[in-house]
Design a protein that fits this description.
Elements lengths: L6 E6 L3 E8 L4 E2 L4 E4 L6 H14 L8 E5 L24 H9 L4 E4 H12 L8 E7 L3 E7 L2 E3 L17 H4 L1 H6 L4 H19 L3 E5 L19 E3 L6 H15 L1
Parallel strand pairs: 1-5, 5-6, 7-10, 10-11
Antiparallel strand pairs: 1-2, 2-3, 2-4, 7-8, 8-9
Helix pairs in contact: 1-2, 3-7
Length: 256
């Protein structure tokens, strides 16, 4: 791993596992990322073996913090309750222990939406913002991260809020995937997003919304039409956020 990197980040998804050394002074990759397709049968052993392969590829020293963004709520020392995007054999597994054993070193695991939110708070659109920031990722579902005065409130699942009797799960009504599947125009989709963000606004009174996910590249097509009082800005790190945020989070835990 080159000298400009202070930590190593991994972002695990249902289709791909991405990793890179991270320059924590700039909040960017120190070397181009390595992406390996997620195994078709994505068991803990199969996924952990790929993470080990990525560590070996970049020759990551044992002294470097290693952070892994994972698509599920993570509670250190506790076993996983459910899994949506990987093999069901993950249920009942201590995720941190699995990766630490496979990698031959301690690693830090964090929820993927939390990792992305931390990256934006530390290096991106929410940098320097006091108060409550709610970062959301609009994709297959809706991921959320709550950050209060720079401190993460982990494992929120606010994408599943009940909007009304007709829509008991927000992400099934307002995610980016729903927009594509129902062939919604951006303005029509923004009306759905307004319902969602207005509910977050009502419950939490945030100081800033940050919208991430791949669709944030087209933010000018829908963010201006989301009618809420809270300022809304697009994410800046986009597809790098998970890796950068995981690396940053791991560095804070190692220091602690």
């Amino acid at each position: 791993m080159i000298e400009t990197a202070q930590a190593f980040g991994v972002d695990i998804g249902g289709s791909g596992i991405k990793a890179a050394p991270v320059n924590l002074e700039k909040g960017e990759f120190a070397e181009p990322r390595l992406k390996i397709l997620t195994p078709e049968v994505s068991t803990p052993q199969a996924v952990a073996a790929i993470v080990r392969q990525q560590l070996d590829h970049f020759e990551v020293p044992e002294s470097a913090p290693v952070g892994i963004a994972f698509p599920a709520p993570i509670k250190p020392g506790q076993k996983l309750d459910f899994m949506a995007n990987l093999d069901q054999s993950w249920v009942g597994v201590d995720v941190t222990a699995v990766f630490s054993e496979a990698c031959g070193r301690p690693v830090t695991v964090v929820n993927d939406a939390d990792a992305a939110g931390l990256a934006e708070q530390q290096f991106g659109a929410a940098k320097g913002k006091d108060g409550l920031v709610i970062a959301t990722t609009l994709g297959t579902g809706i991921g959320t991260a709550l950050i209060m005065d720079g401190v993460l409130v982990p494992n929120t699942e606010l994408g599943h809020l009940i909007l009304d009797e007709e829509h008991p799960d927000a992400e099934r009504y307002a995610s980016s995937a729903v927009r594509e599947n129902e062939d919604l125009g951006f303005k029509k989709w923004a009306k759905r997003l307004t319902k969602y963000y207005a509910l977050l606004e009502k419950y939490f009174n945030p100081d800033l919304f940050v919208i991430g996910g791949g669709v944030s590249r087209k933010s000018e097509k829908f963010i201006p039409f989301i009618d809420v009082k809270t300022p809304i800005v697009p994410a800046e790190l986009r597809n790098e956020a998970g890796i950068v945020g995981a690396a940053y989070y791991a560095s804070t835990k190692q220091q602690a």
